[in-house]
Amino acid sequence: MIKNPEEIKKMRIAGKLAAEVLEMITPLVKPGISTGKLDKICHDFIVNKQNAIPANVGYRGYEKTICSSLNQVVCHGIPDFQRALKDGDILNIDVTVIRDGWHGDTSKMFLVGKTQPHNKRLVRVTQECLYKGIEEVRPGAYLGDIGYAIQNHAEKNYYSVVEDYCGHGIGKVYHEDPQVLHYGNPGTGLELKKGMCFTIEPMINLGTKFTKALKDGWTVETKDGRNSAQWEHTIVVTETGYEVLTKRSEENF
Ligand code: MF3
Ligand code: CO
Ligand code: CO
């Protein structure tokens, strides 16, 4: 579970590549484009420009490069060519790349066209939840500190935290121990140690926390049909705190 400095170097490279996919796709997320098209562009960028591997392709039978989760979709939305993005949509794009055997996993939200204030607020508060979780990361802290920070901020804003999916350890294996819950109590759970790598990826709902899986075997929606947002970073625990391996240039940590 603990990575040495050589391994962290490789995680840093994979994380940077994943972040660059989101940076590349950002200006293209506009009303009129389909998620299928966005997926194809990300795929070709990873394979041809980055000389990397799209980790989702073939993962447990998944066939696409990105997950594209629109509006009431909580996570694992499958890109398709049927529907064009439209004004007012909120969209999560989640991408994982493999370079040299190591994984970088990250996602961000997109506000498509003109966004209603309640959706804007959900997306902003969810990003704040991610950042508040990240701020807890340091040797000697506990996974429960991260979960508590996220849950506290979400619930203060009258939102709910999805409990059915969580963050995860990451390295040569895409999803490995530990599970990183987005709720919990301070001082509980695993104690963090320098060199641990994991994702934090809170899914926050406007309504209740409950989810339902669709018959396609992947798409997860809110049970009540209200919107959901998610942001994700891959983090490593450092001597004094954390490093965000999937940081984009628009972000300051
Ligand atoms: N990237 C997702 C995560 O954050 C997992 C997607 S698995 C897929 O862990 F198969 F749906 F792509
Ligand atoms: Co992800
Ligand atoms: Co993840």
Structure explained in plain terms:
The protein is of the alpha+beta class. The protein has one domain (5-244): Creatine Amidinohydrolase. The chain is 27% helix and 25% strand. It has helices at residues 5-25, 35-49, 117-135, 143-156, and strands spanning 53-54, 66-70, 73-75, 90-99, 102-111, 160-161, 167-169, 176-180, 197-200, 203-205, 211-213, 220-222, 228-230, 233-237, 242-244. Strands 1, 2, 4 and 5 form a four-stranded antiparallel sheet that branches. A three-stranded antiparallel sheet has the order 3-12-11, with no helix packed on it. β7 and β8 (176-180) form a beta hairpin. The longest helix has 21 residues, at 5-25. The mean pLDDT is 98. The chain binds 2-amino-4-trifluoromethylsulfanyl-butyric acid (MF3) and cobalt (II) ion (2 copies).
How many individual domains? Answer: 1
Content of β-strand:
25-35%
Q: Let me know the largest β-sheet.
A: 4 strands, antiparallel
In the CATH hierarchy, what is the superfamily?
Creatinase/methionine aminopeptidase superfamily
Distance linking N and C termini: 24 Å
Q: Identify the bound ligands.
A: 2-amino-4-trifluoromethylsulfanyl-butyric acid, cobalt (II) ion
Radius of gyration: 17 Å
Number of helices: 4
Number-wise, the strands total 15
Form type: globular
Q: What is the element string, with H for helices and E for strands? A: HHEEEEEHHEEEEEEEEEE
Question: How helix-rich are the residues, as a percent range?
Answer: 25-40%
Stretches where pLDDT is under 50 for at least 5 consecutive residues are: none
What is the average per-residue confidence, as pLDDT, rounded to a whole number? 98
**CATH domain class:** Alpha Beta
Name of the CATH architecture? Alpha-Beta Complex
